[in-house]
Specification:
Length: 324
């Protein structure tokens, strides 16, 4: 018989911290929605609502004016992240650690696109690695395996959630184009739709991803609520591919749901299954990478562990190295 102590205890719902991403084009109201959402999750206390601002202090313009949710923006806590210090993922994490130490119940990261392709971000680190290495200059793909870059990519994933506070991140979108031909055979620029300015693998981390369909509006007291399309949801109150007008009522439902109605272990298991799918798809598309995967598993002490049984932490770390 096993020496491990066994025990049953009454089942109990557990509260969970939000891991939410709001994506949209510039000027579509991501910041305003994130502020009201964070304020609600912070038990409607602006002093517990913190915002990390990468947008040239533009979030400060909101303080004191009516919002598009009929809730005035209060005096939230603002942290300015500029190009002077750079947008390294580690800087976001340091700011968030400070916010938690100062009592934050909800932290907004506006936006995390900067951690990908602005000064100090992952793409900037890749460029620096190429410039500083003769090997990387000859093989630019190898620069993605540079230890500094790998560490930053892992930290980028850490940005999405925190066990001590709700985290809401905004992500910029850009419209992609390519040249095609019209009915007369003439060249024309064709839109391929919007894409995130962010690392593609980041989609496996959030529990809820909202796409801005319509910015909200408050004109002389006439409220038009912001509308979102749910791109991804692990929350039962939001259905994937459905559109929602974000009202104070639905935000309060979200607050109550996270506080009382979701088991963090269930969300983590859903996340683990998504990473398993990511590894499976990558190996199917890159058969030559299978021996590398085998070596990575062995290096991490899981040489005999089946893919479906691998722990979440190991899956994420191994996937980053596999695809670097």
């Amino acid at each position: 018989m096993s020496n491990i102590p066994l025990n049953f205890k009454p089942a109990k719902r557990e509260s969970c911290k939000a891991a939410i991403v709001i994506q949209g084009l510039s000027g579509w109201g991501k910041t305003g929605l994130a502020l009201i959402m964070a304020y609600t999750l912070a038990n409607k206390d602006w002093t517990k609502t913190f915002l990390i601002d990468t947008e040239s202090r533009s979030a400060l313009l909101a303080e004191g004016i009516p919002s598009n949710l009929d809730i005035p923006f209060g005096e939230f806590l603002h942290g300015d992240m500029s190009s002077d210090i750079g947008y390294a993922p580690a800087n976001y994490l340091a700011y968030r650690k400070l916010a938690v130490a100062q009592g934050a119940l909800a932290v907004i990261q506006d936006s995390i696109s900067h951690a990908w392709n602005y000064k100090g971000g992952v793409l900037d680190l890749v460029t620096q690695a190429k410039a500083g290495s003769a090997r990387y200059a000859k093989d630019s793909y190898a620069a993605w395996g540079d230890e500094t870059v790998v560490v930053a990519k892992n930290q980028l994933l850490e940005l999405i959630r925190d066990s001590k506070t709700h985290v809401i991140s905004t992500v910029r979108l850009k419209e992609r184009f390519e040249y095609g031909t019209d009915a007369d055979g003439k060249s024309k620029l064709v839109s391929l739709g919007d894409t995130q300015i962010q690392q593609a693998d980041l989609k496996y981390e959030p529990d809820l991803v909202l796409h801005m369909v319509r910015p909200g509006e408050n004109r002389d007291g006439v409220i038009v609520h912001p509308r979102v399309l749910v791109i991804k949801s692990r929350y039962a109150i939001f259905q994937k591919d459905a559109e929602y007008d974000i009202t104070p009522t639905i935000l309060e439902q979200l607050r109550v749901y996270l506080a009382e109605g979701v088991d963090p272990a269930l969300l983590l298991e859903q996340q683990r299954l998504e990473w398993i799918e990511a590894v499976t798809v990558y190996l199917d598309e890159h058969p030559a990478a299978r021996p590398i995967w085998t070596v990575l598993k062995a290096d991490m002490g899981h040489s005999e562990t089946k893919l479906g049984d691998l722990p979440l932490t190991m899956l994420k770390a191994a996937y980053i190295k596999l695809t670097s």
